[in-house]
Amino acid sequence: MSHEHSGHDHGSGANRTRLTIAIAIVATVLVVEAVGAVLSGSLSLFADAGHMLSDLVGLIIALVATIVAARPANERHSFGYQRAEVFGALVNSLILIGVAVFVTVEAVIRLFSAEPGEVQGGLMLAVAGVGLIANFVSLMVLRGGAKTSINMRGAYLEVLGDLLGSIAVILAAVVILTTGFEKADAIASLLIAAMIVPRAVSLLRDVVSVLNQSTPPTMDVQQIRAHILGEPGVVDVHDVHVWAITPGRHVFSAHVVVTQEVFAQGDTGPLLDSLGSCLSGHFDVEHSTFQLEPAEHAEHEANPHR
Description:
- The structure is a single chain.
- The chain folds into 2 domains: about 10-210, Alpha-lytic protease prodomain-like (Up-down Bundle), CATH 1.20.1510; about 220-300, Alpha-Beta Plaits, CATH 3.30.70.1350.
- It is built from 10 helices and 3 strands.
- It is elongated.
- By secondary structure, it is mainly alpha-helical.
- Helices cover about 65% and strands about 10% of the residues.
């Protein structure tokens, strides 16, 4: 016997609106920074523009992923297309890592070059200031969806990296204007790369965890088992599995051993309702499946596990 608990749409429509607004902002600032990098000769501004290009691509991928993920389930895709968000986040993380590597190589070359090139600190400062304001606005737009979607979290982290990158460029511009130390531009580029990598690796780690169907870090299997065993008529629980279709959308299944009285009195339906409500209310499990079985059936199951 099984019981399924269906969750609600986690604001996919709102996430699409957030992403559309962020895409418009990032695309505009990307053009401004690219032109500013060429005119000012700033490597850090160019690096930040490159990061924003990756963000633009990542945001577009994220938008497409939210549209695909909203498609309903069918016979060939019984869980729907929610995993599209995870693949979108995978592409985002790889883009971020690629940008970080490129920026690092270019920064090292310029840092150790005898003639790093002239940098116009004033123009560099002005363009970075525009980028800072725009990135802050984008960050506020995306923040609401970052807590419930790995896809939105990837987009949020990319824009956060841009915000920090703009700050680094501004600091480098100030140093150049006040001291004439133009290699501060290359140092700022290395700082931007250093800020990108940890966030990209963290996002990639989460993607691997979901694709590997690992138990979500927020889920305590022993605590879930204790709650199930606390239900009247339940004597044991085994073959427990809990994983995530995408972070925040948990799936659970288990074999639940119950007393003969539960079957004799026709209480299986109420018990399934109670178990489903327990998993949904206490552990935010979107989809739960239970196999109810008598003790004699559990005893001869092949290779049962806890």
